[in-house]
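Figure S4 source data
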Amino acid sequence: MKIAFDAKRYFHNSSGLGNYSRTLVNGLMSRYASEIEFNLLDKPKKAFPWWRSYGMGTVASKWGANIFHGLSNELPFDLPKSIKTVVTIHDVLFKSRPNDYPFFDSLIYDFKTNYALKRADLIIATSDFTAAEIKKYYASEVEKYYYNKKLKIKVLYQSISTKYISNSWCPNSKMPYFIYHSSFVSRKNHVNLIKAFSSVCHLLPHNLILAGKGNLESELIQLVEDLKLNDRIIFYHFPSDSELEKLLVESSGFIYPSFSEGFGIPIVEAATIGIPMAVSNIPVFQELMNDVESVIWFDPLSLNEIANSILALTNLKSMNYSSIITKVDENNISKQYLDLYQSLL
């Protein structure tokens, strides 16, 4: 079985989509090298900018691929019909939260996703929530052009690197802090978190660490300066893997106030370490954490609820996240992918 992968995110993305691509492909390679021949396709240096859309499919065909897997919401337009196709849809936030995206970017994402859903023999969604969103925004459009075609959506959670499982929570009692690891973009809701923390930080010794990168970073830094919290809120611009692991392990708690997500890999990473959590009560988080007791839930729109959750987080101890860890077990998920690939041939 020869499988070609769109490996742009695998090689060039250090956050969510890249982590998904690397964990999935590396997990399959380590377990099923005898069953699968892999080809990780990346745009050649001198190729045209649109090579992923027109060019990558031809390369996969000449290599002799039986299956092509688009790891991030799209498939090339030049794939022969003889090649079976799989596409992973991580989210359709450009449809549900269009104001978070530049107008023309949204149009491009929508066009590519729409085509991928029509072309794919199998659609993988990274959560039940994302599967429901795909059906909400695209089912009628797909059926309009492909009569009697059913959206074949399989939900497979994103597995995580086993490096996190080897760690255990050991909070720094001398310099306690809470951590939020996420991109600095509007839907991640850093502004409300900073404002809520400013209202209660005088009641606790904990600092707040914001780790990540994104286009709102300078705006958030300015907000912290305006609130005179430079000594209480610390920014880590794109920490390395080892730095992030250390920050997570030694934190007193993890806060995730996002307005909307397709999955939420930082929650799973924190869960494997055993960190107490306060998270927004959005559907996908409730899906992931529905069997976990003692999680602190809050409305991400409410500064008061976020502030109270920060205070409540100081009283939580290590928690049992076994239900989440089972859902993202790498062995189990790799085997499910292998079975799905084999079912297409």
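Figure S5 source data
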Amino acid sequence: MLRGKTALVTGSTSGIGLGIARALAAQGANIVVNGFGDADTIANIERELQAHGVATMYHGADLSRPPQTEDLVRAAESRFGRVDVLVNNAGIQHVAPIEDFPVERWDAVIAVNLSSAFHTIRMALPKMKQANWGRIINIASVHGLVASVQKVAYVAAKHGLVGLTKVVALETATTGITCNAICPGWVLTPLVQKQIDARAARDNLGADEARRALLGEKQPSLEFVTPEQIGALAVFLCSPAADQIRGAAYNVDGGWTAQ
């Protein structure tokens, strides 16, 4: 379905981003990998993706820095001509009450989780418009739809990302470009595993107990969303069936926001 097209997936060296990169590569898309990791890990990821008969490149842009984010898109366009599918997935987290929230962590979360998506979109749109085809998929969060305590920067950034999605969708509404958001609930990523480990240590729980306690607070299914499920939804949003899905925020959350 995506043979000959190029997908740039930020934060694609682990977790949701890697799941999406795998799903898009399986559909024939060339992949621009971005994220942190040692050289061996990244080389293994590229080899795995290339097994689908696609080309890959890696760019280690720090998405908290706009010039590096701009260079990421330029490098992708230099190598492949244009970015056809842009997936803004990179994210960081910090948890603290508002009055104790470090200002520098607020700035960092907003920069990576929200501002970087603005920068990649503004850079990629001109060539998408020339081709009159593009897919922009912003990985927001259930926290782009509802709030939780002690996550002020993350919730603000993800709500902002859903709003950004809607504006881009409206500005591209008469083109072949669509922009949508995916809003996962709990996904067992390295970011979430840290929260499980912290809970286990704090409450003197076993790993399974801590995992179930985390899920039980918010996610009625008591099961994690998987990166593979998010990847499959991203593939659907790239398909012709999704041509008129514009500005949507798909919650994939085990019933979290149904409560």
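Helices lie at 15-26, 39-50, 66-80, 103-131, 152-171, 190-203, 207-218, 227-237. The beta strands are 6-9, 30-34, 56-59, 85-88, 134-139, 177-184, 249-252.
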